[in-house]
Amino acid sequence: MTPATVFQVGREYLSMGSLHNPAGKSRSGAIGGLDASPVHDHGDSISLSETNYFYSRNKSFLDQKQMKKRESIILLPELFKSDDRVRILRYVSERKSVTVQSTAEATGVSKPVVSRYLNALREQGLCDRTGRKISWVQSPRGSAVKRFLNIVLLDEHLPSPEWAKGIGIYGSWARGTNTRESDLDLWILVDTYSRDLEFQVAGFQHELAHALGYEVHTLILTKEKVRDLSRKDAPFYVEFIRDYVVIRGEGIDKT
């Protein structure tokens, strides 16, 4: 709502309200209930000074809201500005609650730096604090941040084997709701399924789990398998198609 709109609505509210016009009478020059005629301070009318005061107060309020919105947008890239911040962010977002001390010890970042960054996360609405305990806030914005962290982590460590047409994630890692205890659900799209492929995928899965430090479960897909899923396990298919993320190569053909 622009300041001009606020001014108009404020005039309408004050000029139409029963407090200022108990009989509900239409004044001279009124258009659709909005008094468009010059107003004077005659008891049941709104003075020009009152109108200007209303406008200036609401314009100031809107200006402050716009400033806060701009500051929020400016600060968002700061979340990922350094490796230290990314380590802190990943550590905090995956746990039920942390402290400045535990975060500093786990990430190798000094307590003053951790404390300042956690305060910044609170200002961004990503964390809450109760006493010394800091907890991650489950919200659409928080999930988007975690999803981005997950994609960056996998992009750094995920190989690109020749036999894979596409690789990605689904489940909690794709939704950005994963915790430290969450398994990484990986999907791999291939041309054809074979016994030899199972061994290749097993080795791939083991190496990735070792590199990331998370349990990895792999879903091997062909185009035929995707079509079968849509018919034989519709609930899983709908959830998979809704959440899946492509990290390497091709996506999933939904037709």
Explain this structure.
It contains ten helices and eight strands. The chain has 255 residues and is an alpha+beta fold. The protein folds into three domains: 3-75; 81-137, Winged helix-like DNA-binding domain superfamily/Winged helix DNA-binding domain (Arc Repressor Mutant, subunit A, Orthogonal Bundle); 142-249, Beta Polymerase, domain 2. The protein has a four-stranded mixed sheet with strand order 7-6-5-8. A two-stranded antiparallel sheet has the order 1-2. Strands 3-4 form a two-stranded antiparallel sheet. The radius of gyration is 28 Å and the shape is globular. The model is unreliable at 1-44 and 70-74 (pLDDT under 50).
Secondary-structure-based class equals alpha+beta
- Shape from CA axes? globular
The rounded Rg comes to 28 Å
SSE string, helix = H, strand = E?
HEEHHHHEEHEHEHEHHE
**CATH topology value of the largest domain:** Beta Polymerase, domain 2
Q: Bin the helical content.
A: 40-55%
CATH architecture of the largest domain, by name, is 2-Layer Sandwich
CATH C-level name of the largest domain: Alpha Beta
Which keywords apply here?
Arc Repressor Mutant, subunit A, globular, 10 helices, 4-stranded mixed beta sheet, 255 residues, two-stranded antiparallel sheet, 8 strands, 53% helix, Beta Polymerase, domain 2, alpha+beta
